[in-house]
Amino acid sequence: MRYLTAGESHGPQLTVIIEGLPSQLPFSKEKIDWQLARRQKGYGRGRRMQIETDQVQILSGVRFGKTTAAPVTLVIENKDWKHWQKIMATEPLLEEAEKRRISRPRPGHADLNGAIKYNHRDIRDVLERSSARETAARVAAGAVARLILEECGITIAGHVVSIGEVEAQPVALSIEEMIDRSEQSPVRCLDPEAEKKMMALIDQAKKEGDSLGGIVEVIVTGVPLGLGSHVHWDRKLDAKIAQAIVSINAFKGVEFGLGFEAGRRKGSEVHDEIVWSKEKGFGRATNRLGGFEGGMTTGEPIVVRGVMKPIPTLYKPLMSVDIDSKEVFAASIERSDSCAVPAASVVAENVVAWEIAQSLLEKFPADTIDELKEQVTRYREQVLRF
Amino acid sequence: MRYLTAGESHGPQLTVIIEGLPSQLPFSKEKIDWQLARRQKGYGRGRRMQIETDQVQILSGVRFGKTTAAPVTLVIENKDWKHWQKIMATEPLLEEAEKRRISRPRPGHADLNGAIKYNHRDIRDVLERSSARETAARVAAGAVARLILEECGITIAGHVVSIGEVEAQPVALSIEEMIDRSEQSPVRCLDPEAEKKMMALIDQAKKEGDSLGGIVEVIVTGVPLGLGSHVHWDRKLDAKIAQAIVSINAFKGVEFGLGFEAGRRKGSEVHDEIVWSKEKGFGRATNRLGGFEGGMTTGEPIVVRGVMKPIPTLYKPLMSVDIDSKEVFAASIERSDSCAVPAASVVAENVVAWEIAQSLLEKFPADTIDELKEQVTRYREQVLRF
Amino acid sequence: MRYLTAGESHGPQLTVIIEGLPSQLPFSKEKIDWQLARRQKGYGRGRRMQIETDQVQILSGVRFGKTTAAPVTLVIENKDWKHWQKIMATEPLLEEAEKRRISRPRPGHADLNGAIKYNHRDIRDVLERSSARETAARVAAGAVARLILEECGITIAGHVVSIGEVEAQPVALSIEEMIDRSEQSPVRCLDPEAEKKMMALIDQAKKEGDSLGGIVEVIVTGVPLGLGSHVHWDRKLDAKIAQAIVSINAFKGVEFGLGFEAGRRKGSEVHDEIVWSKEKGFGRATNRLGGFEGGMTTGEPIVVRGVMKPIPTLYKPLMSVDIDSKEVFAASIERSDSCAVPAASVVAENVVAWEIAQSLLEKFPADTIDELKEQVTRYREQVLRF
Amino acid sequence: MRYLTAGESHGPQLTVIIEGLPSQLPFSKEKIDWQLARRQKGYGRGRRMQIETDQVQILSGVRFGKTTAAPVTLVIENKDWKHWQKIMATEPLLEEAEKRRISRPRPGHADLNGAIKYNHRDIRDVLERSSARETAARVAAGAVARLILEECGITIAGHVVSIGEVEAQPVALSIEEMIDRSEQSPVRCLDPEAEKKMMALIDQAKKEGDSLGGIVEVIVTGVPLGLGSHVHWDRKLDAKIAQAIVSINAFKGVEFGLGFEAGRRKGSEVHDEIVWSKEKGFGRATNRLGGFEGGMTTGEPIVVRGVMKPIPTLYKPLMSVDIDSKEVFAASIERSDSCAVPAASVVAENVVAWEIAQSLLEKFPADTIDELKEQVTRYREQVLRF
C-alpha cells in the first residue's frame, strides 16, 4: 500500500492517489469527511479554517460503495481558489509573476531552504507546498487506512497532552471514553482542569501576538501482536511511526511509552513483566514501553507522543532578510492561527493509522478485505493458543 | 545507496552488503575498525566487549584502496563462535536442538513477540538476531558513509547528554573539541562534573544489580543547506533520521534542536532569525530548530537526540512466563552490561551518518566521488551567492 | 522520480501524480496534449477514439509555466462519463449494481483472473481498470519525462515494424525523418510499400471481424553513455525498459538491437567494434546491440522493439463460461478496434521516455533543470575526453 | 523479500544476503548446491567451469535445518582466488596496480561503458563485477526461492530451445519429463535430434574460434491463478519477469507464450478460450498466452523464453581501441566458453523462481512457511469454487 499527495495551499485542489488497497472494503465518504472536519476544528485556529470546510471527492477505485482494488483518487477542493487563480496560474503570465513575487523568507518555515535548493526567486513556489494545508491530504489517506483498521477491530484515539507549559494530568479512561471526551474538548484535552488553562493560555498568546506549541498523544488498541519485525532495522514499526510523526509539519520529536522518561529511570522501573492466563494468553502487566518491543507490537496499546513547535507565522515578528535586496526586515504575518496543536493531534492519529494499516497488509497481504479479516482472526487465535 | 545486514549474535559472523557507493572513494579499513572499536568501549560494559575486538574484513567492491562502485561486502567475525558451533548449527541436529531450547522469554526484549510472530518454540531463534550485536553491522555501514561525508567536509560528533538522572550541562565547544573530549571520557560526556556522577551512578547500579539508560546527542556540521525536501512527506530528512534513531535497539524517542522543549516555549522563543552577510551568505542567528526547517537542512549544525531505555538484561529479575509450561519465573540474567549508553551514542552517530550520506547522494547523484565533491563545492558557492 | 496513475475507463477521469521532478522545467500543456492526441490516432481504431479527444489539466506543481518541484497532478477527463454515472457510481446503489452486473469473462483479458483474485462477482470491477484506457495516463507521464529529455538533447521516435504478417523493410533515415514520416503514416510505418499492405490487411481483418497485432520499435538518440549500471542486476537500464514495455496492455515480448536474431547468429556477427576519433571520442562501428552493453547505454541509439498481440475484443467470438451459471457462451463484442498497433507505438515511446528520464535523474543531480543540463553537458565533455 | 549480491569474478567470494524469508522453511544446502552445479555444466563450457565446483556456505538465518526469518547469508568461494590475491588486493599496492592495469576494452562487454561511467583507467575494475560469474549468486538466491515454491507445489523446468540456427522441435512432455530429459542432455535440449546438431554446431564454432548464442525456455507449473496484478503497471508479474530475464548477462530479449509470433497471427488464433468443469474449476483450453493475462497468472503454466547473444569473449577477434594510447587493437581472448546457453537456461530458471516466490509472498501472509502453505491451499480451494 502506497500513496502520493499533490496540491498547493492556494491551488485548485489537493489530490491523493492510494494504491494497493484490498478490494471489497466498505468505503465511506462520511468517515473520511469526518476526519477532515476534525482536523479543521480546535480552539485557537485562524480564519481560514472557517473558510474551508473540507469534503472529499472520490474519483476512482470505488464502485457501489466498495473498493475494487484499483487505485483510489481522492480530491479535496480549495474553496477559496477562485481568488487565487491568477497568482497560482499554470500559464506563463510573466507580468503577474513579477508583480506577485515574494522575496521575503519567513523564519521557521521551509521558505529559505526551499528557495535556495530549488533556485526559486519567488518564495511562493516553496510555501504553497510546504504549507500545513498538505496535512489534509495525509488525513484523507489516513482516514482510508482507518477503514481497514476498523474492519479488523483496531481503534485509534488522539488527544492533547500539553499546550505551552500547561500539562494535562493522566486520566484512566477506556479508548472509547478518550475518543468521546477529546472530541468534546475545544483543545482535545482529556483533563478538564488543564483544558481550561490551555484555553486561557491560547487567549493570552493571541492577545500578545504570540503562538503556542504542545504535545499530542496517539493511542491505538486492538493491534495484533507481531506487526513490524526485529529482523532488519528498516522493518521496525515503531521507527516507521517515528518517521511518520516527525514528517508532520512543525513536529520536532517523537517518543513511545515512557519515552524520554525511560532514560532517567532505572531498568527495574522501565520494563513490562510478562503474564499469561488461559483466557487471554500472553500479555504484559504494565505498558511502559508503549506497545513495542524489538520493533514489534506487543499486543498492548500503542502509545506514541509527538511534539509540535509553535507555528512560526507570528504576529510578533522575527527578523529576516530579503533574498533580492538583502535588506533586513521584520517577518510579520497578517493572519494566522495562534495554536494548531488540537488539529495536529488529528493529523498525528491519521498518519499513525496509515503506518499500522500498511504494516497489517505487510503481515497479512490481502487482495480482499475478507481475506484480511479472516487472517487476522485466525492469527489472533493462534497468538492466544501459543 | 542501500545496505542489508545479516548475522546472529553467536553465529560465525556479521555480514553487510552496501550497494550504490560511488567509485574511487578512498576506502580505509582503519577508519571502519576505529568506529567498531569506539562502539565497544564505554564505562559500564560487560565482559563480552572485552572478548570481541571487532575488525572488519573487506571482501568485495574495493581494489587497491578505492571503491570500484561494485557492492562492498564487510564481514565482522564473532570471535567466540567456536564455543557456539553446535548451538548455532545450520544442520538439523535434532537432539541438540531439543536440549538447548530456550522457552523463557525475557521482558523488555523481542523474545516473546518474535517467538509468537514467527512461531518459534526456541526463543534463541529470535534473540540471536534481535541482539544489539547487530548494531556492529550498522556501525560498519555508517563508517563507510562517513568516508563519503569526510570527503565532503561533513563532520559528526556524538556525546552522552544524560545517564539516569545525571544530566550534563551544555558546554560551548567546537565540533573538533567535542570529538576529542567525548573520546577521552569513559562515558562519552562533555561535562567533567557530570562525567564523574555518571560513573558513580553506574557503579551503584552495578552493585544493586540494576541498569541505566540515558540520552545521547549527535551533532553534524558542514552539511549543505537543502538536503531532504519539503515536497513530499517521505522525503523529509529529519523524519528519516528519526526512523534511523528509533530503530536502534532500546531507543524509545528522538528529538531535534529544542525538541520536546519546543512544545513548552512560546513561538517567539523557538524560531531562528535569518541573517545574511556578504562573506557567509544566508544563515541563522541561532539554531534552536537543530538544523532543519521544512524537512530540509538549513546549513546550521544538525542536532539530534535519542533516548535509550536501560538494557533489559537485568540482574534484578522481572517476572515472566515459560512458553511451554506456562509457569511463572523470575527472568534473571547471568551476565550483562549495566549501562550501554556511551556505546549507543557511537551507534547513533553512525546511523545518522548513513542517512546524511544517502541524502547527499540523492541530491548529488554521483558515479565517482570526485563528481560528488565537485558538485558539492559548486553548490556551496551557489548557496553563498543566492 | 515516481508516479502513480488512477482512474477507470468509464469513470470521471484519469489522474496522474508525478513526484520528484526538477524545478524550473518549462512545462508545456501543448506538448502533453500532443502525445495524448498521437495515442488516439491510427488506422484501424474503433469509434471511441473519436469520442475522446484527450486533453490534460494541470492541477498542481506548475506555476507560471514552470515546475516548482512540488508533485504535478495531471487529469484527463473521460468525456463520455456523463452516460456512465450510474453504472460507475461510488455510492452503494444496490439495485443498479445487481442490474448491471457482468458475469461473462472475455478470453484474452484480465477479466477472469482479476475477478477470482479480487473476488469480484461483477467483472466490470476488473475491466474498468485493466482497460487500455489507462495507457493515456502513462502517456501523459511519459510526455512529462520527454520535457526533461528534450532539455538534454535526447530524442525519441517510434514506428510500426509489422502488422500481422506484413513487415516493413528497414529504411535509412535520421531520427527527425523517422518522426516526420511515421507521423504522416496512418499506420506509423516508415516503409510506404508496407504501409499500404498494412492498411489493406486491417481492412480485411475488419471485414472478417478479426483483429491484428504487430511489432513496434522505439529509437532514442542523444542518450549519454553510462545510464544504468552493471553493478547490480536491478540497476540495468535495458531490463527496466523491458519491464516497462511488457507492462503495456497486450504486449507479449521485448527485444533490443538484434534481439532474438542475436541467438541465431555467430558471435563474430553480433558485437559492435569499438572505434575512436579525436572529434567524437569513443564510439561503435555498428549498433547491433541496440545501445546497451552490460545494462548500460553505449551512447549509440537505443533500439527496442515490443510485440503486441491482437486485441482480444473480437467480433469473431471465442468461447467462454459465465461465472455465475457456468454456462458456456460465445464472447462476442459489440464495438472495438481491429488494430491498435500504431497507437501502441506511441505508448511504447512514452513509457521508454519515462525510464530514460528516471535513469538520467539517478545519474545526475537535478533539483533544478538547469543543474541537470549543466551536469549532462559537463559529463558529455568528460566522455569525449576519456 | 529482497536480496543483494556482491563479489567479483576473481575476488575471494560471492556473497548474497536474502532478507524477508518466512521462518521454519526447511533449508537444504544440497538443493542450493545442486542448482549451482547445474549452472556449471553444459557442453561448450571452457576450462574455468572445471576449476570451480561451487558450493554454498550458509552463514546466517538458518538454525537446525530451518530458517529463523533472520536474513540469510550465502557465500560461494572463488576457488582460484589464491592466484589472484595480489591483482585483486583491497590494499593500495600502487606498483601492482600500475603493472596489472588493463587498458583494452572488449567489444560486447560492459568494459568501455563501465570504465567511462565510473572513471576507471583499469578496466578490471569493471569486468570483475560485470562478469557472468555473478549469476552464480543469483542462482543461489533463486535456489532459496525454489525451496519456497517446492513447499507450495510449484515446479520449474528450463530447457534450450535453440543454439545458433539449430532449433529444437516442440515435444509433448510432462514437466517432470522435461526436467529429467533436459538434465540428461549435454545441451539441455528436449529434442534428441536437435541435441546432436547443437553439439556438432558447438564443436564447429569452437574449431572456428567463434561462439554461439541461443534461446532458452522456462516453464513453471502449479502457479496459483492471480499472482501479479492489473491494477498498476509496475505490479504486473510478467513485466517483472521480463526485467529479471533481460538483466541476465548477455540476454537481449524476452517473450511469453506465443511471444513475437503473436504479432503475426490473427486475433482468433492467439487467445485462449475459457473452460470450466466441476472438478477443475475455471481453466483455459489452450495456453498461447503463456500463463498470463492482464499481468496476472492464469493458473496455466508460465512459459517464458529469453534470447542470449553469443558470448563476446571470442577467439576470433573484434577491433577495439586502447583507452590510454588510443591505438586500435584486435580484441583476442585467451580462454573462453564457446557456448553458454545451457548454463544460461539454469540461470533463467532461477531468476524466474525468485520473481514467482516474491509475488507469492506479496499475495499471501507468510511470517512462517506453514502460514504460507495453508493460505495457498485455502486460496486454491476458493479458486476452484469460484
Write a compact overview of the structure shown:
The structure is a homotetramer of 386-residue chains. Chain A is built from eleven helices and 17 strands. With 386 residues, the first copy, chain A, is an alpha+beta fold.
Poorly predicted ranges of chain A: none
Structural class of chain A comes to alpha+beta
- CATH fold-type name of chain A: Chorismate synthase, AroC fold
Distance between the termini of chain A: 30 Å
Oligomer: homotetramer
Strand order of the largest sheet of chain A: 8-7-9-15-10
Structure characterization notes:
Four copies of one chain form a homotetramer. Chain A is an alpha+beta fold and about 375 residues long. The first copy, chain A, has one domain: Chorismate synthase AroC (Chorismate synthase, AroC fold), CATH 3.60.150.10. Chain A is about 35% helix and about 20% strand. Chain A contains eleven helices and 17 strands. In chain A, a hairpin with a 2-residue loop joins strand 13 and strand 14 (about 295). In chain A, helix 1 (about 30-40) crosses helix 6 (about 135-150) and helix 9 (about 235-245) packs antiparallel against helix 10. The first copy, chain A, is globular and about 75 Å long. The two termini of chain A are about 30 Å apart. Chains C and D meet through helix 4, helix 5, helix 9, strand 10 and strand 11 of C and helix 4, helix 5, helix 9, strand 10 and strand 11 of D.
